[in-house]
Design goal:
The strands form seven sheets. Strands 11-12-10-13-14-9-15 form a seven-stranded parallel sheet, sandwiched between helices. The longest helix is centred in the C-terminal third of the chain and has 15 residues. The protein is globular, with a radius of gyration of 27 Å. By secondary structure, it is of the alpha/beta class. The protein folds into five domains: 102 residues, PriA, 3(prime) DNA-binding domain (GIY-YIG endonuclease); 64 residues, no CATH class; 178 residues, P-loop containing nucleotide triphosphate hydrolases (Rossmann fold, 3-Layer(aba) Sandwich), CATH 3.40.50.300; 179 residues, Rossmann fold (3-Layer(aba) Sandwich), CATH 3.40.50; 87 residues, 2-Layer Sandwich (TATA-Binding Protein), CATH 3.30.310. Helices cover 31% and strands 22% of the residues. It binds adenosine-5'-diphosphate and zinc ion (2 copies).
Length: 730
């Protein structure tokens, strides 16, 4: 009898045996419906065997084989298997979680109803010129619909972030209607003038492009180290053009959803006749399935997405790009704790295709791999636009300075100059809310979260205290909960406070705060970005949401208000991250002909990090960090696995970890440290602790963990635990 070995989404590291019954032909990669206990579950056939260790009468037939979508390819199953092995995570969970949600459900998916839109007679009669000249998006939407006939919902969203809103208005006005005739390939509107001419590559870009193209049909990791604005994206575009020409598919990974729309429109403008799909968690389930299917069938030439898109089946894969490869968002922090960048390399190796990692501030691991020759380095040391010089970076010592609500005199003066010149400024502060904490002047009480080891942030306008870790909220107290004193004060700086201060200082300025609070509403962020591009904003107050990727031509000043916290953090990666972040924000200034200036307020202006930053010297900074890491035997000079434990009581978690240490196999050359509480010891009501394992050899560490993992199962049912391979957070 043929035995189907089925992967199911259960936290058990095993496959389950079923027979084909009378379901017809079943092969590896097929989705099947099976009964599991009392439930019906969807599984994926991950193997086929001749016999089972189960008694024949206990082997149930599968209920149904789904024929609604093609089976998963061997290639993708192998990648998922590798991922499950590497992260010591149950294969069934890995496979099922890689599928779009509709394919995980117990019903076959309905053939996708193509949801598109077209103009009505009334809409066709409207001339774009008759719309107000400020209604740029509406004009664009109208013209695009006229040209394409029907546009898919996703293609409309790609026209402009606010296009879906414009569509809603069109529908309400009776100008547009739903339509089922989705064009095969999205055909975005071409400007009357045709596509713009390609820029002539700089010699550095040319060299990078040629190097990759010369080895397009083999596995090689390229580290494209290019300063902000050096034209990395242009390099990707040129390589992708070749991939498309040869009929291949390119997978482009970006760390953040917020970065997809602008990159997408740039790619779409370059390849108007290519089917390009995006994949990220904000897409509706149906749309994600549609995009996934376009990739799986080989129709989509470009797949652009966040880390989850890594597992998309791509039969003609010819190139993988990971942009901003150093970004910690590539690492998933729960469930399968995988790094999409690292798995991209595994995938490239498996498929025999190049992997291009791009960054202005590569992760030290990648940098190290490039220095030792495992990766090939490609350098873009200058900005691509000839007139765009790098911004000058200055530090201002605020140890003894008179600050106006956290803002120094030189920063205020610099802001004033920009206002007078009609240029834009960005004030960067990575703390949303009004102030990081509320304090009682009498007894020293401070607002803390009762569910986490963290402070409650003051949100003055809403008169609420909020925990940014677990979401807990409470009303702002009028008097101190401990001593009854009414003298409570917000301490420290947040975006809202800076906004208030700046509004007071510059009443005529148009000030916009961009943080997770102001960007909460759907489309709020793209709309805010549109406003900045349209130069309707003078001063932007922004968190890290504003630090990445954006290209504002009129932005000439970046002020960094308070970044010192990370300088002396316990996390060994804190300074690497701070440097990357500051390089990135600094990179927002002076991207065009206008020279940029960056002003950093700090109490430690002589700190080596700032010294390197002022010289734009990533290489020097990386070298000094690597020396430190080597001395301390930290990654990349060792490999790490963290055993994380969570329980109602800290002692329970620690006791589990002590037991875990006691049962650890001893025949491997690995070092086990003592269990310690996590940096964030309490989170959302759970006590958290961990145990770090380190080894010089990855192979030894992997073999150790594989053994250890078995010994951990069933050790203590009160504890939730997980293995985190290559941990990024402690
Ligand atoms: P990065 O991705 O490295 O930040 P981009 O690819 O976004 O850089 O390029 C920065 C700016 O320079 C963009 O406005 C881009 O259009 C422009 N650019 C890139 N390459 C060239 C080139 N060879 N000639 C002229 N302009 C270029
Ligand atoms: Zn008090
Ligand atoms: Zn909390």
């Amino acid at each position: 009898m043929k035995i189907l070995r089925v992967a199911l989404d259960v936290p058990l590291d095993t496959l389950f045996d079923y027979s084909a019954g009378n379901a017809g032909e079943v092969g590896i990669g097929d989705r099947v419906l099976v009964s599991f206990g009392r439930r019906k579950m969807v599984g994926v056939v991950a193997g086929i065997a001749d016999h089972s260790t189960l008694a024949p009468e206990r082997i149930k037939p599968v209920i149904q084989v789904f024929r609604d979508a093609p089976p998963l390819s061997d290639e993708i199953l192998q990648l998922l298997q590798f991922c499950a092995d590497y992260y010591h995570h149950p294969l069934g969970e890995v496979i099922l979680n890689a599928l779009p949600v509709p394919l995980r459900q117990t019903k076959p998916v309905a053939p996708a109803k193509a949801a598109g839109y077209r103009l009505t007679e009334a809409g066709l009669a409207i001339e774009a010129d008759s719309l107000p000249s400020r209604a740029i998006v509406k004009r664009k939407l109208l013209n695009s619909l006229k040209q394409a006939g029907t546009l898919a919902r996703s293609d409309i969203a790609e026209l402009s972030p606010s296009a879906p809103q414009a569509l809603k208005e069109f529908l309400a006005l009776g100008w547009a209607e739903e339509s089922d005739e989705i064009p095969d390939a999205p055909q975005p509107a071409q400007t009357a003038a045709g596509s713009p001419p390609l820029p002539t590559l700089t010699p550095d870009q040319e060299q990078a492009v040629n190097a990759v193209l010369a080895k397009l049909e083999q596995f090689q990791v390229w580290l494209l180290h290019g300063i902000t604005g050096s034209g990395k994206t242009e390099v990707y575009l040129r390589i992708i053009a070749q991939v498309l020409q040869r009929g291949g598919q390119a997978l482009v990974l970006v760390p953040e959803i917020n970065l997809t729309p602008q990159l997408e429109s740039r790619f779409r403008a370059r390849f108007p006749n290519t089917v390009m799909v995006s994949l990220h968690s904000r897409l509706a389930a149906g749309e994600r399935l549609r995009n996934w299917s376009l990739a799986q069938s080989g129709r989509a030439g470009i797949v652009l997405g966040t880390r989850l898109s890594l597992f998309t089946p791509l039969p003609k894969l010819m190139l993988i790009v990971a942009d901003e490869e150093h970004d910690s968002s590539f690492k998933q922090q729960d469930g399968l704790r995988y790094s999409a960048r690292d798995m991209a390399i595994a995938r490239g190796k498996q498929a025999g295709v190049p992997v291009v990692l791009g960054s202005a501030t590569p992760a030290l691991e990648s940098w190290h791999n490039a220095s030792t020759g495992r990766y090939q380095m490609l350098e873009l040391p200058a900005r691509a636009v000839a007139e765009a010089a790098l911004p000058t970076i200055r530090c201002h010592d605020i140890t003894r300075a008179n600050l106006v609500d956290g803002l120094s005199e030189p920063l205020i003066a610099a802001l004033r100059v920009r206002l007078e010149r009609g240029e834009q400024s960005l004030v960067f502060i990575n703390r949303r809310g009004f102030a990081p904490v509320m304090r009682c002047g009498q007894c020293g009480w401070i607002s803390t979260c009762h569910r986490c080891s963290s402070r409650l942030v003051v949100h003055l306008r809403e008169k609420r205290l909020r925990c940014h870790h677990c979401g807990h909220e409470s009303r702002m107290p009028h008097t101190c909960p401990d001593c009854g004193n009414a003298d409570l004060a917000p301490i420290g700086l947040g975006t809202q406070r800076i906004e208030e201060t700046l509004t007071g200082l510059f009443p005529a300025a148009r000030i916009l705060r961009v943080d997770r609070d102001s960007a909460k509403r759907k489309h709020a962020l793209p709309e805010m970005l549109d406003r900045i591009h349209a130069e309707e904003v003078d001063i932007i107050i922004g968190t890290q949401l504003m630090a990445k990727g954006h290209d504002f031509k009129k932005l000439t000043l970046v002020g960094v208000v308070n970044a010192d916290g990370a300088l002396y953090s316990a996390d060994f990666r804190a300074s690497e991250r701070l440097f990357a972040q500051l390089m990135q924000v600094a990179g927002r200034a002076g991207r065009d002909a206008l020279p940029g200036e960056v002003l950093i307020q700090t109490q430690f202006p002589t700190h080596p990090l700032f010294q390197s930053l002022m010289r734009h010297d990533y290489n020097g900074f990386a070298a000094s960090l690597l020396t430190e890491r080597k001395q301390a035997e930290f990654p990349p000079f060792c490999h790490q696995v963290l055993l994380r434990a969570e329980a109602a009581q800290m002692e329970t978690a620690l006791a589990f970890l002590r037991k875990a240490k006691a049962v650890a196999p001893t025949r491997f050359d690995v070092t086990l440290f003592d269990p310690v509480p996590a940096q964030m010891a309490r989170l959302a009501g759970n006590e958290r602790a961990h145990l770090l394992v380190q080894a010089a050899s990855r192979g030894a560490l992997q073999a150790f963990v594989a053994d250890w993992n078995k010994a951990l199962t069933g050790l203590d049912s009160r504890v939730r635990w997980a293995l985190d391979v290559d941990p990024q957070e402690f």
